[in-house]
Design goal:
Number of helices: 23
Largest sheet: none
Oligomer: single chain
CATH architecture of the domain at 302-438: Alpha Horseshoe
Helix content: over 70%
CATH superfamily of the domain at 302-438: Tetratricopeptide repeat domain
Distance between the termini: 73 Å
Structural class: mainly alpha
Radius of gyration: 26 Å
CATH class of the domain at 302-438: Mainly Alpha
Number of strands: 0
Low-confidence stretches: 428-438
Strand content: under 5%
CATH topology of the domain at 302-438: Serine Threonine Protein Phosphatase 5, Tetratricopeptide repeat
Amino acid sequence: MQETIGARLKRLRLERGLSQRELSSKGVTYAYISRIEAEARTPSVKALRMLAAKLGVTGEYLETGREIGEAEQRELKLTDAELELRLGADDARDAEMKLRQVHEESLRAGDRVSAARALSALGFSAAQRGNHLDAVERLEAALDQHRAAPHLRPDVYATLGQSYAALGAAERAVTLFEQCLEHVQTAAPDDTAVQVRFATLLSYALGDAGDPARAATVVRSALQRVGGDVSPQHRIRLYWALGRAANVDGRHLEALDYIRRAIVLLEATDDTVQLARGYLLAAGIEGREGNVEQMGEDLRLADELVGREPEPRDLGMLLIGQSWLASLERDAATAVARARRALDVLADSYGSEQGTAVWMLARGLALDLDDVGAIDSYRRAVDLLVVHGRRSDAALAASEWGALLRDRGRDGEADAVLRRAADLGLAAASRSGEGSTV
């Protein structure tokens, strides 16, 4: 007779000298184990995985009784660890330890595909934690092990490029996404989804590299290529990219129009995180236009949607928005506190957002009459914003810095800073004019 799961579980447990209570763990109680052994309950995938691990067998064997080969075992371990990471396990260390083991086993077996897959998953985990240096190292190593085509593993190339950008290497992200887009247009001309994905990623990277005009051109070219074959999800990506490019270029009302269009489409989906990002971007634009009430409403909605464990960039953006709103409401203490927390959250990543956070800190310190801190923060903010291609914002920050110096009677310093603001503003306006003809 074929051995059932319940009988197999009981046999393995007794062979190892374990009681039902000793085999139990969080989420798999001894009463649950008793019901499985009595054939009164079919174990869930998660329970099978946990029980198999404690019994020292594979989940496949516990479920079917079938012994599997080494290659299949590696595949199951990989899938199991990837699932743990996707489900957002409380502690990713166990999943990462499994991935390292699979990587070593794969290298010994000469299985370069599995080795690359394990490294890729480790790279995704590092990027999710905000450790983009480790992410780049692991993802580049994964591509060295086995260079999968961009249209087959877009997640690997997307995460690698986004980590380049987070580390301030926007030009490397541009080069990578240019190569990916060129490849998919040739190798997968009918795959609209992957073409739109790489076009939008390239647009973001170009914006981070200080070329918003070309960022908009890339998106509009993508729209022309896909024609009417644009799903709501693709259209969201394209509106988003156009809005982001316009915002970086200082064309804030145009940016707001695109973002509001994306928000309307997002509200019909279950993508609450992306919807939160839409409200965050809209809030920043409303803040620039001085629409305090609407900015506050957008931030409130974003706060509700961003989730209990948001990504560092999302939480940083929310805190920046709250600092900005506080400064508009003349609440110096809140403006300073939120900006400092944003900088803590962003740490050494996301240079563009760091520049905005330091700018908001400068505003809060100026309101708090901390002239030394405000002037130093304005100086750092302008430098960061310029480096990351945000010349329009850098011009505004420099104008505020110069006005503060003039208010304090430091006219000589003020004149030099205001000249810099004018130069930055002219550069931004020139680029905006070039972009408007696209």
